[in-house]
# Entry
Amino acid sequence: MEKQSPCQPSHAFNQNRACRYFPCHAGIDPDNFNCLFCYCPLYFLENCGGDFAMLNGIKDCTRCLKPHRPGGYEATVARLKQELGERRRNYLEELEKAAE
# Structure
C-alpha cells in the first residue's frame, strides 16, 4: 500500500475572495493568495520567522506574506512541529528533573 501524503493539496490552500478584506496583504498575486492561515497559528511565538513589527507592544503582521504565498502552508506546519517538539522536550526535561 502506498503511503499517503501528510497533506493533500486541497487541504493546504483556501481562498475566500468574498471576504471584504481580500487580499488582506499588499504585494502578492491574488490568484496565489492563500487565506488558510487568516489568523496565523505562529502569532503566539516570539520568534515566528515572519516579517512582523511591534507597534505599541502589539505584534503587527501586516507586512508578513509568508503563510499566504505558495509553500506557506508547509513552512508554517514545519515551524509549528519544530516549536511543539521543543516544548515537549523542555517539558519532559522538567519532569525528569522534578523526579530526581
In short: The chain has a mean pLDDT of 87. The first strand starts at residue 53 and ends at 55. Strands lie at 53-55, 58-60. Helices lie at 9-12, 72-99.
